[in-house]
What does this fold into?
Amino acid sequence: MRIAVAQQAATADVAQNLAVLERVAAAAARAGADLLVTPELFTTGYDPGRVHPDPTVLPRVADLARRSGLALVVSEPHEGAITAVVVDRDGTVLGRYVKTHLYGPAERAAFRPGDGTPLVVEVAGLRVGVLVCFDVEFPETVRGLALAGADVVVVPTAILDESVARVLLPARAYENRVALAYANHHGLAADGGTFSGGSLVVGPDGEVLAAAGAEGEALLVVDVDADDLRRAREVVDYLPLRRAETYRRG
It folds into this structure.
């Protein structure tokens, strides 16, 4: 699978964000990507309390997937929740994940949390699990996707703390033997902070395969295949060695 990760700055203008998505998808398609991952709430702009569902977004994303020949991971507000949708290259919606862990009072006031139901879908011959932003900072979520059979975990995000990408994501990939693709915004956030950028792709051995800087747009394009997963799991595969009965003490 060839994974593309877009680091972009969204606005409150849905049409403008979708125009950027179209431009980025065209570049990813020219690079031969199978899957494009975009930041959290990129379609509407990340501004909890002010963003609203737009019913025109998903049909336009599906049309873009068909025209570009790419599977797309896009995040949008839906039924009172922050979600991420996987749309296959033929425009079929493969699934929608609801963000489980809401970050900060603004998100918790504006949205309801998901119930943790994992989403794992097949794209380009690999099984892709989906999380959103703060979810990946909890080890149980990535482990749950790995146990559900995920080979790759994709994470639309909107974060100001660069240490998450630098410290946590390689560990999450390594301890679960999954590849991980993390797409962040850059530039100013609605609350006056600055998004940390640092979008990246990590291999199943914990190696950072590509990373964006803290500032500016970027498009990362990385190959991850079944052989990469097999080699990492041959070194040590933690999942079959778990002793789940011992972790419930206390």
